Structure formats: structure tokens, C-alpha cells
Amino acid sequence: MHGVNVSAITSPLVWEHVQPAAARRLLTGAIDAFAERGFQATTTRDIASRAGMSPAALYVHYPSKERLLFEISRYGHQAALDVLRDADSGDSPAERLRSMVEAFTAWHAEHHTIARVVQYELAALTPEHLAEVATIRRAISAQIEQVLSDGVADGSLAVDDLPGTTLAVLSLSIDVARWYTPHRGDPAALGKLYAELAQRMVQT
Amino acid sequence: MHGVNVSAITSPLVWEHVQPAAARRLLTGAIDAFAERGFQATTTRDIASRAGMSPAALYVHYPSKERLLFEISRYGHQAALDVLRDADSGDSPAERLRSMVEAFTAWHAEHHTIARVVQYELAALTPEHLAEVATIRRAISAQIEQVLSDGVADGSLAVDDLPGTTLAVLSLSIDVARWYTPHRGDPAALGKLYAELAQRMVQT
User: Fold this and answer.
1) Which residue of A202, B26, B43, B104 is surrounded by the most CB atoms within 10 Å?
2) Is A4 within a domain?
3) Using the beta-carbon criterion (under 8 Å), do A175 and B175 form an inter-chain contact?
4) Which residue does chain B place closest to A43, by CA atoms?
5) Which residue range(s) make up the domain with B55?
6) Residue among B148, B187, B138, B192 at smallest CA distance from B169
7) Which residues belong to any copy of the HTH tetR-type domain (chains A, B) (predicted)?
8) CA distance B169 to chain A (A)
């Protein structure tokens, strides 16, 4: 994938909640390794080595490679949901939609390395962990579906297929993580363009 | 990833041009293996075994695992380009856009397993092979950019950012491969919805 040389450790995503520092180094090392080689091809030795530790030391902090993926996936999904909720403001459904799409798109450009791991490695989670992540995914979807539904109710937005359009709006932003590299432009500008395109999708 | 149990060999994509049959079995086995475990974690032994062959027999047909990926990637991209070109018909830029987005979206739903391999494993190609695939990717992009540009020229479509909107239209269809599973609906119906949404993105 493109852009894998950008270390996740330099990302503005805040990992300070992960304590102690050794656990945090393992987690950011795992993000880089999964983004570069995929979950299946990454060994715990590889992750430990990126964190300057022995494979045995990794197991002090995480019982398995899957547990690291789950922590990354849960945190990444929760961060994306928080971005949507924080951006859900405005005087009309159209303004709220623009604000959310703008923020959600910019987040997927800025955090494209984490977003790729989170989106493309879901099948590697255990059923229990996948179920927990799926709950956050439903909340993300509900956030967009609600504003479209509010717009239909007050007659300010035109939506023929509510779940299909909800998925399309989210999909447009999420796919930014696949193709985005810093030379493709500024995340904020991309957010503004996508806010405009999403609003056009549903305007009356 | 979801849907990896759907064998690529059952896909309507025509692999008959790959001769002899042993080479074709290796190729479809590689698609399934790459989709299931990723390129890096797949061994030539795994691919050979899916084709009912020995690892040594694989090398009779393909010099490397990367060569298999390249054949899949080149064919997948060319098939997607052909779909766009065949669908580029209609009396107005808006009609041409609708027709292309409808076909391109349905293709990504139907062939989601191949499309994922093709889109997510680009970084595993050699620089020479990536350059060859990039040529087809530029032709795909040019196909959409041309119709938007024609619509701007005759005043029938409104596009502020031509490359950005081109990328967004393609991205919306391509991301279908990430989330699509047969229980998410009919590829043809999805194509019609996305044609409508894409047209709305650029209507005056």
C-alpha cells in the first residue's frame, strides 16, 4: 500500500492512554507492520523488534497478535465515531451533513494508515472482538442515517434509499484511506470537496 | 475480509484466455489465497495446493508469486476499463456518466474478491509491473474525467474540481468491493442507485 513509510507513531492520533510506554510502542509498531505486510504475514517477533523488545516481552503486554489488532481496531473505530459526533452541529440537516462529512473525510486522509488496517483486517478479528467493533460501526452508520432521516422528515433533503445512501456517503469518505497519500492534497481541502459532493447527493 | 468463501473460480469473469488449464487453476487459486490471507502471507505451496499441484509444478507456469499477482492485477484492471468503455454511450454527458457508473459499480459488486486483491495489493507489484498497471488506472480515470469535462464544456454538468470529482466518482464505485457481500443486495440495483448519486454530484 502507498504511504506505508509514514510511521503511525508520528500520527496526531493520541495513544497516550495506552500505558505503559512499552505497550504503546508495541501498538504503534503493530500498526506499521500490519499496514506494510498485512496482519497474516506479520509475526509477533516483527512487532516486538519494531518496539525494540523481545518477542517474550510482547506477551507481558498483549496475549496475542490478534489482541493488538483488536485494540487498534476498537480505538480507530471509536476515534472515527467521536469525529462524527463532535462534528454533528449546524442549523439544518444539510449543514450537519456537510460538517460531519468534512470532518470524517479529513480524518480518513490524515489517519489513512490506521484506517486501512482497521478497514481491511476485520476478518482477522475473533468473532467476539468483531462483534464489539461491529457495535461501533453501527453507531457510525446511525450518525449519518439520522441526519439524512431528519432532512427527509423536514423536507430539506431528498433521499430515495436511506440505508443505501447512508452507506454511500460513508463509503466515499472511508475509501479516501485507500488512495490518499500526502501528495494528493490537503486533508482539510478534501474534506470541503467531499462535504459539497455529499450534500449534492441528497439535495432537493 | 468478508465473502472470501466465494471462490473466484465461480466468478463470471472469463479466465479461458489463460492456457493451459493448469495455469488457469493456479491463477484462480492465487486469487482465493490472496483474498483470504493477503499476498505476503500466501506461499507458492498454498497456491499450488489449491490447484492440486506441487510447488515445483507452479514454477513451470509462473516464475514467481508476484507474477501471478501481476497477471491478476493486469487482467482485473483491464476488465474494469473495458466495462467503462463498453458502457460509455448515451445522448448526453449525464446519460453517459450514469451508464458508466452503473456498470462500473455492478462490476465491483460482482467481482468484489478480485477487485479487493487488485486494489489492496498494488504495493506488492514490482516497479515495472506497477507502472504497467498504472497505465490502465490512468485510462480508467480518463474515461470518467472525459465525460465530466464534456458536460462542463456543453454546460450540462457542474464540476468545480475536475480531478477531485473524477476520483470521488470512481472511489464511490471501487469501495463497493470493500463492503459488498451478496446479502447486501443485487449488483444491478446497486449500480442504479450509484448512477443516480453520481449524477446528482454533478448536476447543474
Assistant:
1) B104
2) no
3) yes
4) B41
5) 9-64
6) B148
7) 20-80
8) 9
